[in-house]
Amino acid sequence: MAIYAYRARDRSGKLVIGKIEAFSLISAEKNIEDLKLIPLLVEEVYNLSFGDLFPSFEYVSKKDVIIFSRQLATLYQSGVSLTKSLVSLIEFTRNKKFKKILEKVKSDVENGQTLAKSLSKYPKVFSEIYVNMVEVGESSGLLHNILVRIALLMEKEMNLKSKVKTATFYPKVVVSAIIIATIILIGFVIPKFAMLYKSFNVPLPLETRILIGISNFFISYWYIVLILLIALILGAKLYINSTKGRLWWDEHKLKIPIFGSIFYKSMMGQFTRIFGLLFQSGLPVNKSFELIRNSVNNKFFTKKIDEIQKEVTEGRSITDSFKESKIFSTIVIQMVSVGEETGHIDEMLSKVADYFDEDLDHQLSMLQASIEPVLLTIIFGMVLFLALAIYLPLINVISFIKR
Fold first, then answer.
1. Per-residue pLDDT tens for 102-120?
2. Are 191 and 215 in contact (CB under 8 A)?
3. For residue 348, which of 247, 276, 399 has the smallest C-alpha distance?
4. Distance, first Cα to last Cα, the chain
């Protein structure tokens, strides 16, 4: 459990400052609300933040936006005016950069601009989807509900990225260790053994000759290898950053063993959840597709969304368009079909998103078990080859010494 510091107001408007222990930020906010308080600022207690040390490098994180959204929703639901809500949030925002942005937003709102219009001036902090959802909330009078939904969506995205990083940490460490060990062996260990074998003038097995040849090549031409490696990495980056290269990579990375299905499920979960949220908010289907295409970080899928949007505009059903695209799994098509028939497509999309999230959680939890045999096979193969290459000649050396 973590310690969370909070600032809140009671029902009479009196400021209350304290600390509370909870498993997460959401549970901390719920515990504060159970105390019949309106939370204004809730954050985990840290000893010293990066922003405190280097204020000029401070940035607005997704966590800052999530906290802002939840607190604004709570204040707005409690009957506090938008301007007063922003004043309270500015007062208790620790992030100096975010505080300046909110001050400008408050100034714009006081001058008659809508909240959505004010937030749209900061696209690096508030995404296009965020701004459009807020605009819908303002026009429909459901700003509280919209802000809560946006916060939940962003929290799910953050949790997913965190789980992916955690699941891939072990493979990254093992692969890095293998690369470092290989460099040390080739650059420092093998040359010593090569000099030993050369001094005894004994015949060397094929494995040893290959290893010594590789070592000699890297020692003599390491700068060429380094230049080629840098050129290869830069060339790959330039190609992937090009329109054609990005389209090719985004299509083929979905077919990579083990990781391809993770990319696909993550993309589908994000798409169905956002699409369902936009559909539920009452945005036109065409507008929803436009917003989704800008939020999904996959050019191949974006191209498919453009094709679907064109077909839907021409009068085709969403289900038939999804089938024609040949990228959606059967469960997505079936649930969308049921949603179109019943008029509850947003609910069906939400259920599909939950399904993909649960399936992805399970796969991420099993990722280490899936990759471990592959990594162990690679390590075993390398160790066996090195053992044969280094120690087989020792038998000949011992025989030479005995003679």
1. 999 999 999 989 998 999 9
2. yes
3. 276
4. 70
pLDDT of 231: 95
Q: How many whole angstroms separate alpha carbon 345 and alpha carbon 286?
A: 15
Q: Which helix (H) or strand (E) holds 9?
A: strand 2-9
Domains and CATH numbers, the chain: 1-47 (3.10.20), 259-365 (1.20.81.30)
Place of tokens 């308080």: 37
Distance between CA 392 and CA 382 in Å, rounded? 15
Which pLDDT does position 233 carry in this prediction?
93
**Pairing assessment for the beta strands 15-22 and 2-9 based on DSSP bridges:** antiparallel
Both tokens of residue 146? 């919209």
d(CA 390, CA 205): 10
d(CA 199, CA 259): 49
How far apart, in whole angstroms, are the C-alpha atoms of residue 138 and residue 141?
5
CA angle 305, 282, 161 (to 5 degrees): 55
Mean pLDDT per block of 10 residues along the chain (403 residues) reads 79 82 76 84 64 58 88 85 88 86 92 91 87 82 83 82 78 84 84 80 80 87 90 92 90 86 87 82 79 79 90 88 89 90 86 88 79 83 82 74 67
Residue that has been written with the tokens 């609910």 in this structure: 347
Residues 212/204, Cβ–Cβ less than 8 Å: yes
Identify which of 140, 97, 147 has the alpha carbon closest to the alpha carbon of residue 122: 97
Predicted confidence (pLDDT) per residue in 277-293, tens digit:
878 777 788 888 877 77
Please tell me what DSSP assigns to residue 234. Answer: H
Residues in the chain: 403
Residue 289 neighbours by CB under 8 Å, 6+ apart: 305, 308, 309, 312
Q: How far apart are CA 46 and CA 28, in angstroms?
A: 16
Burial class (CB in 10 A: 0-12, 13-18, 19+), 192: exposed
Question: Which pLDDT value is given to residue 227?
Answer: 94
Q: Encode burial over 346-375: b for 16+ CB neighbours within 10 A, e otherwise.
A: bbbbbbbbebbbeebeebbeebeeebeeee
pLDDT of residue 238: 92
